[in-house]
Design a protein that fits this description.
mainly alpha; single chain; two-stranded antiparallel sheet; 2 strands; elongated
């Protein structure tokens, strides 16, 4: 398998998160597009969509090695069941952290800036103009 993996450990439990496949990324974008079509969403509806979208992304990632993989008629049905499990058993904070990890693994968000030490030396501005003679 060519997908990158990363362990995700919280409260002494470790699961393996997988990079999303190309097809899963397309499905996720289609899901987000469908959410945009929801008109007149209030704050509660927006929060609900954010949480369920995060759980869907996590479920898509977990599906690659989940015991439910292949137990339903379609992979989409497998993922929906895993998503329900994530929503029922994971705290919101863990869903958000795992969603971000999956997005990092999948190249859907830029990696955090490196913490390499920066040169704090002050430099003078450089100009392409020739210096004028001072009288």
């Amino acid at each position: 398998m060519f997908l990158k993996t990363e362990p995700f450990e919280r409260n002494g439990v470790t699961v393996t998160l997988y990079e999303l496949s190309a097809l899963q990324r397309i499905e996720h974008l289609e899901h987000l597009k469908a959410l945009e079509a929801v008109a007149d969403a209030d704050m509660q509806a927006a929060l609900n969509m954010t949480i369920t979208s995060g759980a869907l992304l996590v479920a898509m990632s977990l599906w690659h090695a989940h015991p439910l993989k292949g137990t339903h008629n379609t992979p989409k049905e497998d993922v929906e069941q895993i998503q329900k499990d994530v929503l029922m058993t994971w705290p919101l904070e863990f869903i958000a952290e795992a969603e971000y990890s999956v997005k990092l693994l999948s190249g859907m968000v830029p990696p955090p800036e490196s913490s390499a030490p920066q040169d704090d030396a002050v430099t003078e501005p450089v100009s392409l103009e020739k210096p004028s003679p001072v009288s």
